[in-house]
Amino acid sequence: MTQEQTTAAARPSGPCLVLGGKTGMLGQALMDALAKAGHPAVAQGRDDVALTSREALAAYLETVNPGVVFNAVAYTQVDKAEDEPDEAARLNKTLPENLAHLSASMGFKLIHFSTDFVFDGKGQEPYEVDAPTGPVSVYGRTKLAGEKAIRSVNPPGWTICRTAWLFGPGRKNFITTILNLCRSRDTLNVVDDQIGSPTCTVDLALHAVQLLDADASGLFHVVNVGEASWCELATEAVRLTGLPCKVSPIPTSGYPTKAARPAWSVLSTAAFTAATGVTPRPWAKALRDYIFKDLQDFLEPQANRG
Ligand SMILES: NC(=O)c1ccc[n+]([C@@H]2O[C@H](COP(=O)([O-])OP(=O)(O)OC[C@H]3O[C@@H](n4cnc5c(N)ncnc54)[C@H](OP(=O)(O)O)[C@@H]3O)[C@@H](O)[C@H]2O)c1
Fold it and tell me: Cβ distance 166 to 204 under 8 Å?
């Protein structure tokens, strides 16, 4: 029996707890993926517990007695974080740090989510999990601090999934924003010199559960494969819906934002595939499924489904 199997056997037999499972974009996808995989799961929302209080969090976890905790809660407003660094750090650093300590003392497995924004964006090859980090924003710095806190506490079986550029059902996201704008405009200017790994929450949640089922632990990059600029992603979404709107490329300098973003943050899924034997599908296939399954409202009768 390996060390990992020993650790898993010693875990509480309680349900999977999904922090952010009631309202978060990823949290809701995790609840669906866990149900499909036959894992009993409990969804947490803001009314259930004050997550930033370690005592309240500990008491809540004692009540639920989870075997696994997925932390899909975060301060995700990248630009607003520049003005609220303390609040961002409470959610992105202190919460995972507290969860790591409680994981060590209570025995549940912690599966946490982080971001491509821990990188500086100057890479030219897809970032591997051990590539040097260098966040360029408060959001990226607080998320990296959360990763480091978990690794420093080092609870048995800790798992961190870095992901990127999420879209999916259940919450406003880049795709719904673009398609809503297309309803009222003939043309849209979208940044074309930031390149990343667009990822569907449905796929990410499935892959996170696959990591759990493979009893994997450590740091992984979990994204749909392929790369795109924001402009390429928007163009494909508009093409699939058939909305009559022209998407034009502009440079980052043409769309100033409070927070800096990495210019190139494509993630390599090699470590994830080595652990699970699974290769994520291309982002364009995941986008197509998302639009045709979940965004019926945006589809026109004459939509081009090619
Ligand atoms: N979205 C992306 O493009 C992206 C990219 C890379 C990595 N990630 C990472 O992926 C994970 C999931 O992101 P997501 O897009 O699914 O996030 P999301 O949709 O913004 O959901 C965030 C969750 O955190 C909860 N939350 C935020 N502030 C809270 C507070 N003060 N107290 C209690 N709950 C609070 C939210 O609750 P309410 O609904 O009540 O506000 C919501 O359930 C995060 O770790 C994020 O850093 C996301």
Answer: yes
